[in-house]
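haha ok so turns out i had the wrong file open the whole time. this is the CORRECT one, sorry everyone. sequence first:
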Amino acid sequence: MASPYLKSLPQFFKQFATEDDCLRYLASVRWGKSFQCPVCANTSAWRMTRCGYFRCTSCRSDISVTHGTVFEKSHISLRLWFLTIWSVVSQKQGISALGLSRILGIKRQKTSWELLRKIRQGMIRPGRDRLSGLVEVDEILIGGKRHKFEGRSPQGKILVLVAAEDKGRRGIGRIRMQIIPDATASSLRAAVRATVEPDSVVRTDGWTSYKLEQWGYRHRRIRQQSLNPGEDSTPLIHLVSSLLKRWLLGTHQGGVQTTHLQEYLDEFVFRFNRRTSHSRGKLFYRLIQNLLHISS
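then structure:
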């Protein structure tokens, strides 16, 4: 089989000239040399004449390579799925549904939107590791106008918890972003636990709702009054926040619906955490892997 890592658009069209080419590629990514029947968990099968289908040697079930995945029963061809995924990963800044419709000649923008929505779901790797080491945590606000008030109530904006690994001289490591309803201790506790590995060192500002020692973390609280004028208590988060807002404005012209914001955050995290990758083909391969774990 050809290398799973694509290098260019001409290679893409050569490798995926037909639907059968796409099916064979899916089979190699999903099972490789270790087929597993989703019905009985048997690990051997006969390859059927119909491309993309296997017959389990134990239960005799006919299994499609798309069975139980986002590609199953999709009215969209695999070639269009693959071309969309390649368009997403080959452009570092991403692509909007409108831009995708224009590039690929998709007549209904809703089709482009549905494709991108599913692909963004695949940007969350199943069972991904939580952040660890020294992790900076803070909340940011995204959205419309905000009224003057005291405290951390979002009031018309969306509150997002952001966590970033501090790698010292190497800069920012991995990041995570999660929408939270408010900045109370219960909301912060749930978000931090889902994001950061226990016993990590977590650096925050002086907000009293961060009771991290009680939650199994080592807490490094940076109070604003202890800093020199102009210093920032959570500089990594503010840098990531600035990049996120610039990305939302540049790629989506700021037109992000609040109901879909978490999907955009997941896409930004996917891109940020792979910003040093020089292989677009590897990103394509990893995204296909993740999508095979998502049902339609």
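The beta strands are 45-47, 53-56, 62-64, 134-143, 157-166, 172-179, 201-204, 218-221.
again sry for the mixup
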